[in-house]
Each structure stands twice: as structure tokens, then as C-alpha cells.
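Protein in question passed on here:
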Amino acid sequence: MEFGIRLPSNKPLDIVGFGLNAVDHLAITPVYPPLGSKVLLSDHRLSVGGQVATAMVALSRLGFKTSYAGKVGAEPSGDMQIDSLVAEGVDCAHVIKVDGATTQLGLIVIDQVSGERTIFWYRDPRLTVNPNELNQDHITSGRLLHLDGCDTEGAICAAQWAKQAGVPVVIDLDTPYPGVERLLPLIDFLVASSEFPEAMTGINDRQTALKTLKERYDIPFVTMTLGGEGALAFHKGEFIHSPAFTNFGVKDTTGAGDAFHGGFDYGLLQGYSVEETLQIANLIAALNCAKVGARGGLPNSDELSRACGELKIYIGTQR
């Protein structure tokens, strides 16, 4: 099945991302401790992540021209985030440093046995990006715009600019941020967490909630990630389930959703079908989960091709 949404071709960049970044403390524990107890960690690492920033890294590793807009603190963690993006080839000319603010922090406790993680996070309110801090020419300079909706007013402004310029908008939503109901009608591709459709609609049936979201906000394409179950989409009156890959093992699920979103954008930019796009997104998420860190297992083009070969996945020009 085809998406039926055209991407412009006359743009200097493939994709622009506006949204969250984070610096993560990864705490790997042999067993998740009960409240009030103490446990010796197996490992501790300082890593970089964040929903949109990680998606841009995923695409940059796969050879696309990417740019990121957001805020960091004017302190070592902020420099670490920017340096990590620049090292991956992501343009950071529109990243704003905020004096006195601390870059978004994540404390991520990873269960060594299952690879599942629990996230504690903090974001300084001064990191909010307002519409007047965005650059319209930059926001519309890609063939796709990728948002997460956290800074809702900024995201609404960016999506409106993109619509005016004929640039399709992809959004990664896991939280019903205040005002998000005004953002959703501006979205072309909603890629939500498993919890988001129920949180927005009050409906606890996956299919009904997803269909209701599409109809209520007139969103052309909707899908939801389901962790180890893969992803479920509703498009052109049909539900499409794309199973997850379990071939590579799971060391850390941190960034799995972000990797999936990067893979979804990859499929759109490559012109893949809906089924192929969901499949490649699931594969990139699985590869990332096989290593530790939000970006630890994001593949480059050769690694992705090799994984496709091992699993006998034939997509795009290989069909």
C-alpha cells in the first residue's frame, strides 16, 4: 500500500528535526531493586539521546542530509550533545544555547536480564523553544519536517510553516501535551506510542483508538509503536500490523522508539510502501536495542543492508 503523500524534491536538506535532545545517565542493574533497597550497578555510562536528536542521527548514519533545531544548556552537557550531533554529520546551526540552564537530563535504569528500561527525566523550563525563536527558512528547508510536540506552540508554528511550503510533517508523540489537539490537524504522519491513542481518546481498544484519532483530527496516516509486538497502522480504511524483529537480542530498549521513528522517516524518504516502511523501522529499532544506549546500535547503510540480507528482507529497488 502506498502512502499517497508526495515529498518535495527541490530542498537543500532531506529532513529537519525540531524537538527534544537529552544527555542520559545509563545505570545497568543486575536486578531492578524494590523501593527502599540498595543494589550494586553492573555498569554506568554517560550517553546522549533525545527523541528528535536521535532520529536525526539515525538518518544521518544512513546517508541523509539532516538538521536539528532545539535548545541545550550553555554548559558541558550541552556541548556534549552538540558535539555528538556534529560528529554524526547533523547540522546544528540552529541549536540555541541557554545561559544558566541545564541540558535535559535522563536517568535510565536498565534491567540487565530483559533490557527493559525505566526513565526518570528532568527538563529545565528555560529550554522551551517559542515560535519567535524558530527560523522559517530553516524549518522548511527539508523534504520532511520531524517534530515531537513537546514545545507545542513552537511545533504548531513549525507545522504551519511546513504546510504552507508543501513539506509533509511527521510527529513522534508519546504524551498528550497541553494544546496538542491544535497540532494534530497539521500532521501528515502520526507515529504515536502505544499509550497515546488511549490517552487522547479515552478508548482502550487499540484499533478503535487509532481509527478515532485519524478521523477526529483528519490525519492522513496514523500508526502506533507496540514495543516487542512491532507497530500497528491504520491507512486507507485498513489496519496493518508489522511485527517486531527478535533476531538480534535485547540489551537495552532505550531509544527504541526514537530509532523506529528514524527508520520510519527513512522509508518515507526512500519512497517505500507503508508495509516496507514499517518493516524497516522495526528492523532499525531492533538493531538499536541490540546494543546499549539511545544511539548505540543505530546502523549505517552497510549494516542495514547486511541485516536485510541476513533476514532475507527485500525492499525498494530490491523488490
In short: The longest helix spans residues 274-289. The first strand starts at residue 13 and ends at 18.
